[in-house]
């Protein structure tokens, strides 16, 4: 996400920071490169022009030029302006004071609307809500069946249309069923088209006028760049959006849609899709995204992901086993599974501040798969006590996991070192940590 833009901006700011004292000409030269980087990222040209002008006005002031760290000051200004461009604050879903909350999902075909309906249903359920999915797309034959399949996976009820029913009738029936069955959120998957046309807008307007939804969310494919922005403008003008969900953000290295859509439409991005799995939907936080774009990481989102993936009971059990020096490969495997639930390694690593600056370090999902395969090929006794694993057992484990003996050796060595370090940290206590890590003294 934003990989190409992040790389360009980091190079520009590194040059600015390396100059020491800055002149107005240095700043203008840097901002010309920022302008080109944003245009190459497919950010709307009007947005780029206004953004660069705002940064220039602030950056050539005396506060920056006379600062001891002018390069850092410019980066700070760009960061603040990026947050402003993306919307300043997170805008949550508007839930009705008197349930059920009615949410329309609109958008073009191929934007991921039906899948996003499933993701949003899961997100609502995890927040303690009781969602109902409504298949109101009567244009695409497979839409209702796809939504029904998603509902079955999620254990979320789905209302499928009766033959010949109109979308407005389907949505109204969904609202009625939600009231009877105590569902407090109704997610309506509306019809899309390959392009915006009068029939589509007329259908959506009729539904909105008849049912007055609390949210009308556009589902747009981030990878289509300015086409997504143009679609958002048309839908907002036609039916009146209350927010935007950008899908396929994990595959969008440029980020033009995310950086343009809020400024052009005035509507907040509320969620982003960051993967194909149903749990890969994130609330959109402008400040966190701006930090990711500038390579500063996103620690808050990383902590939230960890809290969702790691069950408190398992965490307490792990801490106790480490203290008692009983940490085994079974525990190690459990930790790997929890890390995988947080998302891809690449997504996790980009949230760690400074990680992208480490040259030659590239997270490899295959290594996690290989490690788990090796552990799964061991007996219960071997996982409990690696001391019993001799040469013949290593060969058997390697053969069973489709790896080599040296892969098994490397895992055992890494596990031994991890266990040793955990034991040291556990036994050190606050004072001992100061001895092990001098930088922690007095903190």
From TrEMBL:
One of its GO terms (biological process) is SRP-dependent cotranslational protein targeting to membrane. Residues 1-86 form the Signal recognition particle SRP54 helical bundle domain. It is found in: Cytoplasm. One of its GO terms (molecular function) is 7S RNA binding. Residues 100-295 form the SRP54-type proteins GTP-binding domain. Its EC number is 3.6.5.4. Keywords: Cytoplasm, GTP-binding, Hydrolase, Nucleotide-binding, Ribonucleoprotein, RNA-binding, Signal recognition particle. Its main location: cytoplasm. Involved in targeting and insertion of nascent membrane proteins into the cytoplasmic membrane. Binds to the hydrophobic signal sequence of the ribosome-nascent chain (RNC) as it emerges from the ribosomes. The SRP-RNC complex is then targeted to the cytoplasmic membrane where it interacts with the SRP receptor FtsY. This is Signal recognition particle protein.
